[in-house]
Amino acid sequence: MYTITLSEHAVDHGVPSETLEWAVSEIRPEGFFLRTLTIPEGSPSLKSNLYGPAAGDLPVAGEILVRQEGDDSRGATPFVNLPPRATNLLTVIGIANGDSVTVFTAYGGPAAERIPSDPSLASDPEGRARAEAFWAEHALSIAAKR
User: Using an 8 Å Cβ cutoff, are 91 and 36 in contact?
Assistant: First the structure.
């Protein structure tokens, strides 16, 4: 059994706590982890806000918008005027130390790169290049904008 702590961004994607607990027990994390799982049949479906090749679509070009003024952690993000879609995929990112797990984020859909304006990419030119390439052909549903 794991003790799960959620960051403020882990709770803003509508993943039920039971689904998150199931995912952590399936992952059995050690150290940093980023995993995408298929949730079991009969579980409530999740919503995916991602559009583009990673979601099985053609490349999309989103309109770059700032989610919230003063929110440096999320910055400018490409959005498209399309609705979220049901998915049976769950991506969980966090770190484990023994039986203690901190979930940084958990969301419906495939794994996505950090957005290029993410402050953690300032000293990571390779990561920033991957992020720029990914978001050049991906975008989030405008319904994800808060």
Answer: yes
